[in-house]
Amino acid sequence: MKRILTGVALATTAALVTATPAMAAAPKDPAVAVKKQLKPGKGVKFSERTTIIDGTTRDIFVRRSGTLQFSKSGIAASDSTGRFNISLSQLGELPEGETGEMIKALAREERTIRIGTTSYLSGGMWEGFLAEGQTWFKAPKGPTGGLTGMFGQPLNLAEPATIKTLLKGAKTTASGYAGTTKVGDIWKASPWLRSTWLSEPTAKAKKGSISWKITVNSAGLPTRLVTTFPGSAIGGDGSLSVDTRYTNWGTSVSIKAPTNEVADEFKDGGDDISKLPIPLGSLAG
Q: Keywords for this entry (predicted)?
């Protein structure tokens, strides 16, 4: 009997050992993986949606998609489209005149092509500021994604410096990494963010935090990024959550600046985007 019990115990132990899965390997460092992708003529595609959170209410506010083109050191160019998740029927009765037309324009898709630090803006509200026959507004040191980009993903994972900043103190997860990073730290590390938000966050806003979670593939390349951050970072209320998907790392990309119907000033003669009358309250409210 003793031998039988011993045999059963040994067999059970062996079965348990066999059934115990091997400890999962830690995910590969995405900063290293992304840096290997930074080759001229190569890039990555992305798509994302932004949700505004106000108490228990969650509403999709913006949808965006596009392509990033790399250089040896980072991002050489980008081509993105974005649209506010609104329809004219949702806007109800609009003010007459220029303000009403501007709000209608914001309900249309906008496109931004950025070469180096020069942005070319088209569609959306930009149509109302351009003279007849002009399609694009050329903005040196312009925003990376037009107006919708301001509400898009604040973290650009094609920037190794941004990833390194995020990974300080981050935790590994079954699918990648997660953590919380100060808005001010990302603002300092990311040239992309400094060109995306239309104004610098206040000192108080910089102390706020961006919560994030990165999913990586077997090579360590990001496939998904979800962030949540306070609306005060961009001068608003509540908070925003952005869910970004990355596909086709290493794809061949060639983004060119538009050459036809390009204006370097608005129809009123101005060229300062920061002074434009943008009725954001009518959208977010």
A: Signal
